[in-house]
Amino acid sequence: METFTAALPVPGSQGSRRRWKYLDNILNRTGPFTDETFAPGIGTIQALERNKILVIGAGGLGCEILKNLALSGFRDIHVIDMGMFVHHVALWSSRLACAGDTIDVSNLNRQFLFREADIGKPKAVVAAEFVEKRVKGVKITPYYGAIQDKDEDYYMQFQQVICGLDSIEARRWINATLINMFDPDNVESFKGQSRVILPTLSSCIECQLDMHAPRAAVPLCTLATIPRQPEHCIEWAHIIAWGEERKGDTLDTDDPEHIAWLYQKAHQRAMEFNIGGVTYSLTQGVVKNIIPAIASTNAIIAASCCNEAFKIATNTNPYLNNYMMYNGDDSIYTYTFEHERKEDCPVCGNLVKDLWVNGNWTLREFIEWMKEQPDTQGLKEPSLSKSGKSLYIQVPGLEQQTRPNLDKKLSELVFEGEEVAVSDRALPVTLRYNFMFKK
What predicted TM-score, i.e. pTM, was given to this entire model? Predict the structure, then answer.
């Protein structure tokens, strides 16, 4: 077995190895769980340092991930911070707009790489500079902007990608885009999950989508007349008050001024109906359709995620197969299991999925039903077509031509067993279904 003194510099590395004493205890010797391909010593350390890894997101989870990776021996780290998807009001926008995320005062309580002087600066840039100063020898390359700006060649340069994204829609988009690679994780308040995804071999995010309950729809009449929960007041400010009082303004859910305006309106509404619980953080969560993360949950999930990245890069231990869930709502509970891959998954599978529908539904009713289903949640403006014919296309010009189909029955538009393609600006893939009519 190849060994070396931990205090000596490793060829190709910078400076002494004293800081990495405990890491070297793992990398410099075999153990009961090391893979048979594991080769302890200098070669493994240098391979870890050359491992190029991408982190998507530099918020609460991303800060923890960047810190952990740098302290785990990774030296070539890249980070993209894209913010949330911003759905501009401009009609028929065909591209998912992405606002690069900047630091807000509300971030400072848990995103520990940022200081008050950093408010307004790009998260990715500030986080990269902070970690580089604290961990000498690590190189973090930030990118401030949309992940759609990068092409396939950019993503193919990385051995692993770790996704720290706070919305299901964003996770689905990046999962479909990067399915030929990588390793997503996510956090929801006191709950979190980390996953290892082996493309075409293990289940992907889309396969696991039914584990996320779709957001319950609230009737407009409830929002407008009898709100009962703080979320109702926030939705009222979001859907009704904004449209009435700020016509012409595009709501940017990453703009602190916009969120603060919605919070003030929702708070006033809650006071009128003696409803408590409206906070700035909750307003962010409802408007952006996320559950704001807790600092301790971020730390736990980031540690799990980076631990898996380290194991994959070094073969020092078996990696997760393939799903870990954590719940800290009531005491602490963790559970690991293998989530099975769906052969008819529209992203990693290659089969057309049978979809049982009511033939008497109108196309309009079917589209609204699709938006509420667990495995198609996140759809915003779905377009439908079948072989040689457009059923409803939400792009300028074609929308008006196909609009009359919205009020036609499905049985008038589609034959039993006919394949229908569903596309949406929120997904880079097309969902394919065989329409089967319920008897």
Answer: 0.68
**pLDDT tens for residues 350-359?**
678 888 999 9
* Helix (H/G/I), strand (E/B), else coil: 268: helix
Annotated catalytic residue, options 221, 233, 306, 348 = 221
Q: What is the DSSP letter of 366?
A: H
DSSP for residue 214: P
Residue 91 has pLDDT above 60, yes or no: no
d(CA 23, CA 55): 21
Burial environment of residue 370 by CB neighbours within 10 A (0 to 12, 13 to 18, 19 or more): buried
Q: Is 21 exposed, middle or buried (0-12, 13-18, 19+ CB in 10 A)?
A: exposed
Q: One-letter amino acid identity for 322?
A: N
Assign 203 a pLDDT band (cuts: 50, 70, 90).
Answer: confident
pLDDT band at residue 63 under the 50/70/90 scheme: very high
322 contacts 198 by C-beta, under 8 angstroms: yes
Structure tokens belonging to residue 294: 């807790």
Residue 172 near residue 283 (C-beta atoms within 8 A) = no
Q: How far apart, in whole angstroms, are the C-alpha atoms of residue 136 and residue 71?
A: 10
Helix/strand/coil percentages in the chain, nearest 5: 35, 15, 45
Active site residue 221: yes
For residue 215, pLDDT beyond 70 = no
254-263: long-range contacts, CB 8 A cutoff, minimum separation 24: 254/83, 254/84, 254/86, 254/99, 254/101, 254/102, 255/99, 256/104, 256/105, 256/106, 259/283, 259/284, 259/287, 262/234, 262/237, 262/238, 262/287, 263/234, 263/237
User: Based on the number of CB atoms within 10 Å of its own CB, is 245 exposed (0-12), middle (13-18) or buried (19 or more)?
Assistant: exposed
